[in-house]
Amino acid sequence: MKFLRIKAIAKKELIQIWRDPFSLAMVFVMPVMLLFIFGYAITLDVNNLTTIVYDLDRSSSSRELVAKFSESGYFTIIEHIDDDKDIDKYLDSGKARIAIAIPADFSKNITTGKNPQLQVIIDGSDSNTATIAMGYISAISELYSQRLKGIKITPVIDPRVRVWYNPELKSRNFIIPGLIAVIMAIIAALLTSLTFAREWERGTMEQLISTPVKGPELITGKLIPYFLIGFIDMAVAVLIGTIIFDVPLRGNIFLLMAVSSVFLFGGLSLGILISIVAKSQLVASQMSMVITFLPSFLLSGFMYPIANMPAILQIITHVIPARYFVAILKGIFLKGSILKLLAMDVLLLLIFGLIVFTVANRKFKKRVI
User: In the chain, which end has fewer C-beta atoms inside a 10 angstrom radius, N or C?
Assistant: First the structure.
């Protein structure tokens, strides 16, 4: 491989990117846009549950109970209704997720020592949210009951729970690192998936083939500019994640960027392979989205635990590079993991990159077909 030839190809590719506004927008705007859209849209935190109250008791006790729900931060009281028929209207329309119905004898039962009843109706169309809401309701009701009785029940087992890595249990803290991995997987393949296809469509590939530039030199020369651009995109994504979304970065920033380089090499090589095979920008862009977006989003462990997937899908996840990059980013961001703990994932990413790069070199032929 001659360095001067690679340098010339890389320079040509940089000039071509600079003169193409669409490429520049895709390179720098799309990753930031995707990070903001998905970063704010995706959340597993359950709070601000819209709630209506049907209070037949209208006593200080019932108002105090309603206040407990409102003060918790999990429930937002949007309306106090006077007719039980309105419960169905609010739940059916989606205006409310939860309805709390307090019977007329609520405070009386408290005074006489009876167990007061509380009816809670939950919209179960989202089973995960409904399950979490049931837990919140049970906890608030139990604390309120203990306060009324003036007793504190001492459990037989007193667990002392300490949450490591994400003590505030914010879903954003583990969503953003995984999201960065998914976005970079998409962008890396999309960036280079148009390179060779563009040359074929514009008729300039014949000119490149007629030069002394060899196949590996041509692929490497086209890879270098996008590698630098992908590196910048990764740095910007990390800055946005830590500054805008306030995700803690407990690990070494240099280790993070070094590992990201290994991932970018594999992702960009995959895009090159797609471009060589497709020979059409439209087909290449569609192939890169299908091959990277859905597998990275659904099968990388970003949103859904791999251990909960069917056995066949768990096997398939082993060939998805985003799976290892998601684990690496979460480890560096939240746990402060060192290279020794990430070595296997990094090695598998490197193997993937080398295999795809080799296949791309073998697939590219310096001849007009």
Answer: C
Q: Are residues 230 and 319 in the same domain?
A: yes
Token digits of residue 156:
């037989």
What are the E-state strand segments in the chain? 49-55, 75-80, 98-102, 119-122
Q: Give which of 73, 216, 224 is closest to 139, Cα–Cα.
A: 73
- Mark whether 38 and 59 lie in a shared domain: no
Taking every pair of Cα atoms in the chain, the longest distance, rounded to a whole number of angstroms, is 97
Query: Is residue 219 a contact partner of residue 273, using CB atoms and an 8 Å limit?
Result: no
Pairwise CA distance, residues 185 & 328, whole Å: 14
Distance, CA of 142 to CA of 146 (rounded, Å): 6
The 10 Å Cβ neighbour count of residue 108 is 14
Instruction: List residues bridging with 27 in a β-sheet.
Output: none
**Average confidence (pLDDT) per 10 residues, the chain, 369 residues:** 79 82 78 87 81 89 88 88 87 89 85 81 85 87 75 62 81 89 89 82 75 83 90 93 92 94 94 87 86 88 86 92 93 92 94 94 73
What's the total number of domains in the chain?
2
What pLDDT score was predicted for residue 320? 92
Dig out the tokens for 288 from the structure: 């890169």
Give the tokens for residue 361. Answer: 């070199």
